[in-house]
Amino acid sequence: MPRAFRDVPQAFRAGPAVRVAAGLAMAAALLGGSVAHAALDPAEIVKARQQDMKKLGGGMKVFMGYLKDDKGTAQDVAAAAAAMQAVTKGLPDQFTEGTAVGVGESEALPAVWQENAKFRQGFTDLAQALDKILALPATADKAAIGQAVQAVGGTCKQCHETYRQKK
In the chain, where do the E strands start and end? Predict the structure, then answer.
């Protein structure tokens, strides 16, 4: 049995945050090719993209639950940031030509492709903001976590205001 597969169960014997992060990383690795297969159908690309965006939203819910409602731990915040980081890396490539507003339930404005370099920079900025959360020590106080989360939220907001059709 390859070493990579022998070591996987050890990750799942660790604490809950490590188990969640390991599981999400494995799922991302296993499902990473699903968008490439959907490339033939723009509506399927939009669906996959929306599912990944919902994962980012789920991470934000973990952040806000911890900061506002005392739900979870700082380790849960770190695990959510790691999961968001994994999703963020592949997300820009899911915005392919022909998947703008009018395709499926897409809310992507034409500006995504008209200003593509700037649009992609937003994902780089998001990844850097998530890095700040991941760099915090496990003993970080809520104020430090809150500042880092605020930067993440700012990058999400800026992109949504510029490149997403308003509901």
Answer: none
> Phi and psi at residue 40, in whole multiples of 5°?
-75, -20
Residues 6+ apart with CB under 8 A from 104: 42, 43, 44, 46, 47
Helix 116-135 to helix 142-163 angle (10° resolution) is 170
pTM as predicted: 0.75
Name the token pair of 41: 């159908």
Would you give per-residue pLDDT tens digits along the chain (167 residues)? 443 433 333 333 344 444 444 444 444 444 454 444 444 699 999 999 999 999 999 999 999 999 999 999 999 999 999 999 999 999 999 999 999 999 999 999 999 999 999 999 999 999 999 999 999 998 889 999 999 999 999 999 999 999 999 98
SS3 106: coil
